[in-house]
Design goal:
Elements (H helix, E strand, L loop, with lengths): L1 H14 L9 E4 L7 E4 L18 H5 L4 H13 L37 H7 L6 H16 L5 H17 L1 H6 L6 H22 L8 H26 L19 E2 L2 E9 L6 E3 L2 E3 L2 E8 L4 H13 L5 E6 L3 E4 L23 E2 L8 E2 L22 E4 L13 E4 L19 E7 L12 E9 L4 E2 L12
Helix pairs in contact: 1-3, 5-6, 5-9, 6-8, 8-9
EC number: 5.2.1.8
Keywords: Isomerase, Rotamase, Thylakoid
GO molecular function, one term: peptidyl-prolyl cis-trans isomerase activity
């Protein structure tokens, strides 16, 4: 009921003509559990990931949104007062209605939300095949069953997957692009052959709570992960050869990523100390991100281009507040990337790909486009989701600053959060996301490299070679 009262209070303030609605969120953070939210009597909403135009002191300014922003939030809440319910989040302006249903849906709600970055990337592939989606659902459900020890359910899903592979093989292979059928057959056969070993591992006896059970769970998750990787490879073969996302001519001069790339970043502590993850110490944090040009070709292209130039090497973390970890602002000069010979930073437009559309839209939020409830192909619902920072009132002000969202289902409930459709999500952290909990302001990105997919980067205008060997 606390959420309902919060929303009613906002609406009441708007109806009374108040120009300010002050929200404060105290975000409590620990390494043993995800970021959690507590509300205090004097509440101000968490600051959004804006461009930072000054030095480290900007974090203080970034923690307050302008009066205009508060008034807009309150006004939008008042318009929707009739739809208020206990399930409505405290950010009603972008509350999405879309709910796919089921654990594996890319947009869901509550405890059933899909927070798996790899799964979200599979759902983001530009393919439409009901049989491969059905197979994906069964195989991914196993990953949800294993940690909570729903072993019978896991075996049931695996048996269903086995039947799908047997009965729908011809249909699955028909969706494969030309000249890739042999590889697809190998992958499909390998997935089928991997089912029995996983079922055997699931059925291995182990005392509840014992070290043997812990080892069993780890083994099962490892085997399931191997199957999921093969599933990803199979689905990628369904993307048409030379598939290209259309980009408006006005943005043709910007780098574009037509496909996906993998970026690896290494971060070290500013004071030389170690990263602490639940008591385990690490000299450095290694993050691996998949950058998705199929859903955000311009935003992803800009990012991969900057990584390939070495722009983020030695860059410091400028914000870490339990909501986002942000970087990309040079120590001096303009707040973004200035190409050689240019006087102003290179700007990238806001890029949002709405589910069901044929291409991304540019320069507008979904709310401004009249589709505030629309689901996006890359939702902000995984810990470590990548977003492009921008000025709150200038949609096309992105340049080099980006953020990792520290997703929390209470603060940013998937399908109902205030990030989807308002900021450009362009990928996910697929390895090392837990390190983000211990990354602080002043920590340094010692290296950033494109380890896969640099060939998918399409540059226009003056060609600049990467600053390192690819």
């Amino acid at each position: 009921m606390g959420v309902r009262r919060s929303s009613v209070a906002i609406c009441a303030a708007a109806l009374l003509g108040l120009s300010e609605v002050a929200w404060t969120f105290r975000v409590q953070h620990s390494f043993s559990d995800a970021t959690r939210l507590t509300r205090t009597p004097s509440l101000r909403r968490p600051s959004l990931p804006e461009q930072q135009s000054t030095g480290p002191a900007a974090s203080e300014n970034a923690e307050c949104t302008s009066r205009r922003g508060y008034a807009e939030e309150a006004a939008r809440a008042a318009v929707g007062i009739a739809a208020l319910s206990p399930l409505l989040p405290s950010f009603p302006s972008n509350a999405a209605k879309s709910w796919q249903g089921g654990l594996n849906a890319p947009s869901a709600a509550g405890s059933r939300v899909n927070k798996d970055a790899d799964s979200l990337l599979r759902y983001g592939l530009p393919i439409q095949d009901k049989d491969v989606t059905a197979l994906q659902v069964e195989l991914e459900a196993v990953k949800g069953d294993i940690p909570v020890k729903r072993f019978d359910s896991a075996v049931n899903h695996l048996n269903k997957a086995r039947v799908l592979i047997r009965d729908k093989e011809a249909s699955l292979l028909k969706a494969i692009r030309p000249k890739s059928e042999d590889k697809a057959k190998e992958l499909l056969a390998s997935i089928g052959a991997s089912v029995d070993p996983l079922i055997e591992a699931i059925r291995e006896p182990a005392s509840r709570g014992s070290p043997q059970e812990a080892a069993k769970l780890d083994k099962c998750l490892e085997l399931q992960g191997g199957i999921a990787d093969k599933m990803t490879a199979l689905m990628a073969l369904m993307v048409p050869e030379n598939y290209k996302v259309p980009v408006p001519q006005e943005f043709a001069s910007l780098p574009q990523l037509q496909g996906r790339a993998k970026v690896e970043m290494v971060v070290k502590k500013a004071d030389g100390s170690k990263f602490d993850l639940e008591g385990r110490l690490y000299d450095e944090a290694k993050l691996v991100m998949v950058v998705d040009g199929w859903n955000a070709p311009v935003t992803a292209g800009n990012f991969v281009d900057l990584v390939s130039k070495g722009f983020y090497d030695s860059m410091k973390i400028s914000r870490s507040d339990g909501f986002v970890v942000q970087t990309g602002k040079p120590d001096s000069g303009p707040e973004g990337y200035v190409p050689t010979g240019a006087k102003e930073p290179r700007r990238v437009p806001l890029e949002i790909f709405v589910k069901g559309d044929n291409a991304p839209m540019y320069g507008e939020t979904t709310e401004e486009d009249g589709r505030g409830f629309a689901a996006t192909t890359l939702p902000f619902q995984a810990y470590g989701a990548l977003g492009m920072a921008r000025s709150e009132f200038d949609n096309n002000s992105g340049s080099s600053q980006f953020f990792w969202l520290l997703f929390d289902s209470d603060l940013t409930p998937a399908g109902k959060n205030f990030m989807d459709g308002r900021y450009a999500c362009f990928g996910y952290t697929v390895s090392g996301a837990d390190f983000l909990r211990d990354i602080r302001v002043g920590d340094t990105i010692v290296s950033a490299r494109v380890v896969e997919g640099i060939d998918k980067l399409q540059k226009t205008g003056k060609s600049e070679s990467p600053s390192y060997a690819v």
